[in-house]
Amino acid sequence: MPRSLDFQTLDLRDALDLAILVEEEARERYAELARQVGGRYAGDASDVFERMAGNEAKHARQLSERRAELFGTTPRRVSPLMFWQIEAPDAGEVRVFMSPKQAYGVALNAERRAYEFYELAATQVADDRARELFLELRDEERMHQEAVARLMADLPDGPDLGDDDADEPPAL
Asked: CB–CB of 22/144 below 8 Å?
């Protein structure tokens, strides 16, 4: 049975472990979505999701290195069973024939959820160093939102945007 997170008891080690697990969950979901939508052409939705998976993997590595410097190989007390879909994109928003801009929209929603999570976590945690980490992560999520929004602004809406039969292959 999954345990729930008690933010009052989290210290910096737990906060880092939670953040690492959040990034790993998001990486796994993006990789799954890239496979789900399949690659059709360079720069398509699959490429967007692969790019996002790479970003999440990079963030997880950075946090893991930080954790190792501070806490070595001390075991985790936080488990993936304690939370679900904090930053992982919502699979329900994805469809096979979505445009790259729509794929970035899915990523933007995930970044917003992560921002909200870290903002709330910072208000609930008692440990000052954990609070500082959550505020730092919140600010990074805001920067990620801004970066995704900039990428979206440069993309066309895509031929399937607004198409009532968007889940169907285009007619030939």
From this structure: no
